[in-house]
């Protein structure tokens, strides 16, 4: 499971909970006001208070004036968004919707259902999405600007060693138990009979549309693409090369208003309607149905993974080579199936493991590989995997030999921070910044 992704989801969820708390706390008694302005972007007092509640909910230890630190962070974000507008650095709404789909899908999966989510928070999924949209778009713009500013930053081994040498001995971090684990994942492939059933279902839906039923109504009812289904199946404008090749070929072969026969892509089967074409961009809508594998399909997948396990154990075939060749988990296959932390190091603290993996390796010895078992991927898809417990490193104080990747990452982040600081010094003079007098003591963006 991608820890970075989970943390971003949980941050969004925490903000939702904080929004609820603020609403119950205020009940209209506190009149909101602007506490800072960066060009045309404002920061409200309620926004500052929500961020402060989020900080408190994480149980972190406060150092200094936390509200001042949070306000400065909010101002910096608005500064980057304002500068992104000046520099024409954009994030498309469709990208935000896709990001929001992933977050909401994960959150709903953890809660249990959309109905349970709405019952707990007394708010519809649509209301949640509306509340989160601008926040997520701002996060994505800030991330994109950070990438633009520091994209060319690199660091040499000599710089890493110098950075490490400047850390006082008594300030070196202490790392808890770390493990190196990997997995090979296979998504069971539905058999031809199940695929034929889906094709017939989509052909029936096509006939109903041709007989007068609205495409959008049937997309909302049947499509298994949650993001576009809410929009009646509409995807918005895309450039050539941005969607699955099979999808694009079918969409661009039609005239506006025409509906395709079922089209198979890596995501499932689509019924596609071209809405409009503008040169190399086009707008389309679709109904996606994903065939479900049968029990025999799942067993066939388990048998295949079991054969890979046998090759590793008996024939000494390298795990990483088989993972790169066969694993359907895009996040780990490039690493030879191994999980990595936020720094890219293929050693993870046991404290950061998701519960399923933690309890899996808790019953294993180093060097063992599990037999195939079913599990849910981050996107909710059912899959089968084998897990390899390669190594375990006991708790230790940071050193260059064992922790080079982590130290390199910290040194690189420090270098990037210096570049970002220089960028802020220049950007401050290009935008209008005004902060309410009551926060003068915070000395926001003052050297």
UniProtKB/TrEMBL annotation:
Q: Name one GO molecular function term.
A: peptidyl-prolyl cis-trans isomerase activity
Keyword Amino-acid biosynthesis found: no
User: Boundaries of each PpiC domain copy?
Assistant: 176-276, 279-374
Which residues does UniProt assign to the signal peptide?
A: 1-23
Known InterPro entries for this protein?
A: OMP_Chaperone_SurA (IPR050280), PPIase_dom_sf (IPR046357), PPIase_PpiC (IPR000297), PPIase_PpiC_CS (IPR023058), Trigger_fact/SurA_dom_sf (IPR027304)
Q: Which SUPFAM superfamilies match?
A: FKBP-like (SSF54534), Triger factor/SurA peptide-binding domain-like (SSF109998)
* Pfam annotation, one family: Rotamase
Keyword Isomerase assigned:
yes
Which Gene3D superfamilies does this UniProt record tie to the protein?
3.10.50.40, Porin chaperone SurA, peptide-binding domain (1.10.4030.10)
What EC number(s) does its UniProt record assign? Answer: 5.2.1.8
UniProt KW keywords: Isomerase, Rotamase, Signal
Q: What is this protein called?
A: Peptidylprolyl isomerase
Q: Which organism is it from?
A: Reichenbachiella agarivorans
């Amino acid at each position: 499971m991608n820890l970075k992704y989970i943390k971003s989801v949980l941050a969004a969820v925490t903000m939702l909970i904080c929004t609820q708390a603020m609403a119950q706390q205020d009940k209209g008694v506190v009149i909101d006001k602007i506490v800072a302005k960066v060009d045309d972007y404002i920061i409200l007092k309620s926004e500052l208070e929500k961020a402060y509640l989020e900080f408190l909910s994480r149980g972190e230890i406060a150092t200094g004036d936390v509200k001042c630190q949070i306000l400065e962070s909010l101002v910096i974000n608005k500064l980057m968004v304002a500068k992104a507008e000046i520099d024409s650095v954009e994030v498309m709404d469709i990208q935000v919707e896709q990001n929001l789909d992933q977050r909401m899908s994960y959150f709903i999966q953890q809660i249990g259902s959309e109905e349970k989510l709405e019952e707990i928070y007394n708010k519809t999924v649509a209301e949640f999405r509306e509340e989160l949209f601008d926040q997520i778009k701002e996060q994505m713009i800030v991330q994109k600007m950070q990438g633009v500013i520091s994209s060319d930053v690199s660091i040499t081994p000599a710089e890493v060693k110098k950075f490490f040498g400047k850390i006082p001995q008594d300030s070196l971090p202490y790392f808890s138990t770390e493990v190196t684990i990997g997995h090979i994942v296979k998504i069971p492939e539905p058999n031809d009979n199940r695929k034929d059933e889906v094709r017939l279902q989509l052909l029936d839906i096509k006939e109903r549309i041709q007989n007068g039923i609205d495409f959008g109504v049937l997309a909302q009812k049947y499509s298994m693409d949650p993001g576009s289904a809410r929009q009646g199946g509409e995807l918005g404008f895309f450039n050539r090369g941005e969607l699955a090749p099979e999808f694009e070929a079918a969409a661009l072969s039609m005239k506006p208003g025409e509906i395709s026969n079922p089209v198979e892509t890596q995501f499932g089967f689509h019924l596609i309607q071209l809405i409009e074409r503008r040169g190399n961009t086009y707008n389309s809508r679709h109904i996606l149905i994903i065939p479900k594998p049968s029990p025999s399909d799942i067993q066939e997948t388990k048998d295949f993974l079991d054969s890979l396990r046998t090759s590793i154990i008996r024939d000494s075939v390298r795990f990483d080579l088989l993972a790169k060749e066969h694993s359907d988990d895009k996040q780990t296959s490039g690493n030879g199936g191994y999980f990595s932390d936020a720094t890219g190091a293929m050693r993870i603290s046991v404290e950061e493991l998701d519960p399923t993996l933690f309890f899996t390796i808790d019953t294993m010895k180093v060097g063992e590989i599990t037999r195939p078992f079913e599990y849910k991927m981050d996107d909710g898809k059912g899959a089968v995997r084998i897990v390899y417990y390669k190594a375990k490193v006991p708790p230790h104080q940071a050193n260059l030999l064992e922790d080079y990747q982590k130290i390199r990452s910290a040194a690189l982040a420090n270098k990037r921070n210096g570049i970002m600081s220089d960028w802020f010094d220049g950007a401050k003079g290009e935008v209008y910044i005004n902060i309410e007098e009551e926060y003068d003591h915070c000395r926001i963006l003052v050297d």
